[in-house]
Give the backbone structure.
Amino acid sequence: MASETARIEAFSDGVYAIAITLLILDLKVPMTQDGHLGVALLRQWPTYFAFLVSFALIGIMWVNHHRVFNHIRRSDNRLLFLNLLLLLGVTFVPFPTALLAAHLRGADARVAATVFNGAYVLIAIFFNVLWHHAVDCALLDSATLDSAHSISRQYALGPLAYLVCFALTWVSVPLSLALNIALAVFFAIPPRIRSK
């Protein structure tokens, strides 16, 4: 029923909005002596970087959640709990973002990036499980099945690609983060455009 999916979407929108807003709390006004504010602001570049990357990733997750629920017309108990599992991942994102910002320039950059990339591996898995449940249990609008197949193909790459980001952390932290950003761009592209 449309009202069931509307409630799921409304609740999810609220969670996405809170998670994306919490990211800004890590940006602090630096306390400095007069004349040194510019330098202090520049020193915070890891915080700006982590904020922008996570803002983009949460925003793109929200867009994809919207795309998915444009196809889902009915819900069941499992869909509700799978959506909650996905939202658990989304609400966790501010923590690895703050961790990455705090340790990107230090000796623990690899550990921080591992936690950061690991969070996105889990979110990609949660997204796929939710989507495949909706497909397998015929919760989709039959009029949109063609574009649903495009979504299935695009999402199938997610867990593996984010796992590559995770593994790449042990080779190069900057490279793993660059791939993470590239994946954000990939998942921002609507599946019907990608299929062309």
The chain has a mean pLDDT of 90.
